[in-house]
Amino acid sequence: MSYIQFLGAAGVVTGSKHLIHVDNNGSQPLQVLVDCGLFQGQKEWRERNWQDLPVPANSIDAVILTHAHLDHSGWIPRLVKQGFHGPIYATPATIDLCSILLPDSGHLQEEDAAYYNKTRTSKHAPALPLYTMEEAQQCMTLFRPLNFDEAKQLTSALSLRFVRAAHILGSAMAEITLASNAKFSKLLFTGDIGRVRDTQTASGKVVRSGPTEGEDCDLLVMESTYGNRPHPHTDPRPELAELIRKTIQRGGSVIVPSFAVERTQKFLFLLKELMETGQVPRVPVHADSPMAIKAVQIFLKYTGEFSPETKALIEKYGSPLKWPNFHFDVTQDDSKKINDSTSPSIIVSSSGMVTGGRVLHHLMQRLPDPKNLILFIGFQAPGTRGFTIKNGAPEVKIFGQHVPIRAQVAALEQFSDHADTSELLEWLHTFKRAPSETYLVHGEPPAAAQLRDAMVKSLGWNVQVAAYCEKVQIG
Ligand SMILES: [Zn+2]
Fold first, then answer.
1. Which of 30, 167, 203, 440 has the greatest count of CB atoms below 10 A from its CB?
2. 0.85 exceeded by pTM
3. Which residues of 149-295 form beta strands (DSSP E)?
4. Residues with beta carbon < 5 A to ion ligand 1?
5. 38 alpha carbon to ligand 1 midpoint, in Å?
């Protein structure tokens, strides 16, 4: 039997892993993994990062990676550590992003393990990293670039084409065509789906053209992150400027937990624009990430993917690395110096969901002071510290300590890189035909269920919510 098995991002928004198993008439089956992401957030899910897959890693022939976010890519070094040695197909921009994100993830895993060993707070002795920075660096040799819209025959049984997902730089949907003996010959895995073409409704949007329209498949595996929450469709800039102005007036600093790549650069361009137009005072801005400079360089390398608005900002202001008052803090010492300063500044630091990284130190110091502002510009998955802080908790645990939350907390939802329900439906209406079956993944249960109902009502399609480890027969 040929099947797809949902090994992650089913009932949850992280850990994307979908196994395609193609039966080969009794000889060695073909096995391909679409995405290979880390589980993040709640402990019950994170613990699955330590479990083996139901098939041996060395029996998987290839990995197809839709985009660089760690919840889609961050388990690759672990898979390689367990014996996978096949090719990993991704777009060139995704490979560039992974070359900084995966080693950084390995570094964070090592830091976590060292911290648990130092404080003896893990039940495992000694605590080990899921993988190291060096192991993450080594797995980059397995990556193979594939440009958008180029068909690639991976084996006689399976071919692959990436089409635009417009979610982040390099993000793609995987169109997979199976040899004709399968029940379903054309599969589409959306990965994460970006905002639709109408830029008026997506002020935070960078990626140019929206997801590729006019798709055509037998089986669709689609994300559902925002299946039950519409995005506000207003311009975020006036509110953003006011929040920052008021914080600076009362002598506070602004801490922005942000994904280091792309989201941070987008935000820096907006800040620059607000400062140049006098809407925000020119206080020091810190992009505090060990990847800060490389991230800017990758961002500027792929300007072809940007929306006209972002392109215009890049042309007008040039590289952020040369802007006065903007600091790119690469070393730990640079980062510590920010903490020494008591005058107002804006600190953009990762990780975006406060699960690790340097933002922890900044929050530890600034959360107890009501003068400061903690500003969220990205999705916060349940179970993360970001979710706790954003939802009004009185305190949060950082480095084993209970840190009181007295700073102002605000969130701007317009920066989302995910289409919401109305945008998803708008995109789905461009399909050439209804897929025979659709499975929703990458959503909390209420979001996936609500999107399923909306799709059934609006499109009349056969839609189901994927369950963890469920197998769907495809031939
Ligand atoms: Zn993503």
1. 167
2. yes
3. 152-155, 158-164, 172-178, 186-189, 219-223, 254-257, 285-288
4. 69, 192
5. 12
The two most distant CA atoms of the chain are separated, in Å, by 72
Mean pLDDT by 10 residues, the chain (475 residues): 92 91 86 95 85 95 96 97 97 97 92 81 78 98 97 93 93 92 86 75 55 94 92 86 97 94 87 95 94 89 82 88 92 85 92 90 96 94 92 94 97 87 94 97 94 97 96 91
Is residue 334 helix, strand or coil? Answer: helix
Gap between the Cα atoms of 402 and 394, Å rounded: 10
* Cα 264 to middle of ligand 1, angstroms: 15
Is 397 exposed, middle or buried (CB count within 10 Å of its CB: 0-12, 13-18, 19+)? exposed
| Tokens 């311009």 sit on residue | 235
Per the CB < 8 A criterion, the answer to whether 253 and 347 are in contact is yes
Rounded to the nearest angstrom, the distance between the alpha carbon of 30 and the centre of ligand 1 is 27
Residue 203's pLDDT is 46
Q: How many C-beta atoms lie closer than 10 Å to residue 117's C-beta?
A: 15
CA dist 282 and 261 (Å) reads 23
- Decide: 168 and 69 in contact? Cβ < 8 Å: yes
| 195 CA → ligand 1 middle, Å | 12
Overall size of the chain counted in residues:
475
Element (H, E) at 332: helix 332-340
Q: Is 315 within 8 Å of 110 (Cβ atoms)?
A: no
Long-range contacts for 172-181 (Cβ within 8 Å, ≥24 apart)? 172/66, 172/67, 172/90, 172/91, 172/94, 172/148, 173/66, 173/211, 173/212, 173/215, 174/34, 174/64, 174/66, 175/215, 175/217, 176/20, 176/32, 176/34, 176/64, 178/2, 178/22, 178/474, 178/475, 181/475
The one-character DSSP state at 466 is: -
Sign of CA dihedral 378, 308, 302, 192: positive
Distance separating alpha carbons of residues 106 and 289, to the nearest angstrom: 15
